[in-house]
Amino acid sequence: MVERSGLQVFDQLAEFVEQKALPGTGLDPETFWNGLAEILEKFVPENQALLAKRDELQRQLDEWHTAHPGPVTDMAAYRDFLAEIGYLLPEPAPFSISTANVDPEIATMAGPQLVVPALNERFVLNAANARWGSLYDAFYGTDALDAPAARPGGYDKARGAAVIARVRAFLDATIPGWERAISGDEHPALAGRKDGGVLFRHNGLHIEIVIDPQSPVGRTDPLGIADVILESALTTIVDLEDSVAVVDGEDLVHGYSNWLGLMRGELTATFEKAGQTRERKLAEDRHWTAPDGTGFTLPGRSVLFVRNVGHLMTTPAVRLPDDKEAPLGLLDAVLTSLCAVHDLKQLGRLRNSRAGSIYIVKPKQHGPEEVAFSNRLFDAVEDLLSLERNTIKMGLMDEERRTSANLAACIAAARGRVVFINTGFLDRTGDEMHTAMQAGPMIRKAAMKGSDWLQAYEDRNVRIGLACGLSGKAQIGKGMWAAPDMMAAMLEQKIAHPRSGANTAWVPSPTAATLHAMHYHDVDVFEIQKRLADEAAPDLSRLLTIPVAEPGRNWSDEEVREELENNCQGILGYVVRWIDQGIGCSKVPDIHDVGQMEDRATLRISSQHIANWLHHGVCTREQVEDAFARMAAKVDAQNAGDPSYRKLSPDGPAWQAAHALIFEGISQPSGYTEPLLHAFRLKVKAQA
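Below the sequence we write its predicted structure tokens.
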């Protein structure tokens, strides 16, 4: 550790800031460290006060639900109670956000969004480059195509023919008469031409038809078409939160370095494939000639957000003058913005935001006061970095119950910089369960998806967003499709997201982004938003209906066993990689051996559900321990092919962490998993 302006700073972090992040920005080290120290001095006490308020509200909720167990029978009295304790706040007067200088990918276009862990360079580059994706490849390599699987041993012509027929059907439905433009004629959807390609525009998205009669595929096509490329992931969230294991200064420097590399357009990744060393870098922009003969350029990459952490966690990478750890959310705000100044000042090779904005997703905020706190923090960061007010844009995640219940007031608290709201089933359900832990046993996890409160939550998010003027200025998003190998099911089901009026939704891979992009050609989201604009949001009482089981509900022993095994398997499968290997997001086999993209939100809902059933006597500790041991054996078998995997054992840190998440679940702040995960991961790193 080194001393900087009264702070103790991890030496590699200080070196990164002074030698890589500051040069070119106009800030000298002394000014920067003094400014960071002032921000911490000002905001740490308020950060602590907001966390204390969370605890106090939870105490009052626990007392109320203990006195009024079971489903809420008097909703009016319940709402009065929530208002009395300051949990439920008055609705703001009608307003429209004033967010300005927003890139069109966010404000006026509708399309898929990727979320990628910041610590994996190859994944980050793949996601950023997923702005354009081959529809031929997406169908050829997934179950999205209803045809026999490709035969091994090279290109399968029969499979290829089925792909071409499927893509032709998409083109015929989306751009009738597209063949005319291939032959050189005009077409109303024609956007551009270049040697070897024709470009169309539909619903604001581009479709490129690659012409190469000499290619293996083009030789078989009467028009010489070698591929069809869709504009796919318009935006990508580079994640420093739920999908990464960032527990110390070393991890932070890795994440911040990758973000700086992206903001400068210089990040690369070297990897081995097919016995060869390969390098990946960010894609270049794409150049076209419009029908009138003028040239134009399309971005080659997604517009990048960075997701900071919430208000809860602290970091040993920076210690305050009283030797306490600094809140990581405060440090993230300063350092990710500092890195993004390189983009604003065009210090690197490529641009991210052509509109001159910094995009930060701020998760796990509980209510308008916490959003207002983040807004003031961003004000202070802008002042430190000499940025105009509201240069830093805020992505507001609607994933906590107090935020959902006060969503319009949350948006109002940052109305000059809100650029994104979205819903997330897993974290939102985890908070639902923790908030009402004392109300009674929760319904089974699978039943949550069909519950009325959840539908009200999804619908209210869109309608409140529209009422607050987000259409044409910001994204209204929906959550993740978590099964990357189930693309046929995704194509069938995820069209519900654009149909709901959301102009983006999360997907687990570049391939999924390309397939999901088809939905935004099938659905004109902005027309749907116009139709929904005058519809009232579902009544707040529906949102506040707690998903506890009816009194007297008894699940069978088999049902209890199934629920416990499902939850325990998911917890262990995720935690063992997080603790032992530092992998914060990966494709984890579920209890049915289906790969699911898991992050900490999955862990939160599963651990809180078991904690709730234990607390209310639905299951016993012995039943949980039994399920735990059986599922540990299953997780070991599922990971048998991983040479870096360490088997689960009761004396191992991964087992102990998973165990604590369940049996200490009620005492965890807001049911979050981070405090326990960080503690056990730090032990593993210390031992190594």
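The chain has 26 helices and 23 strands.
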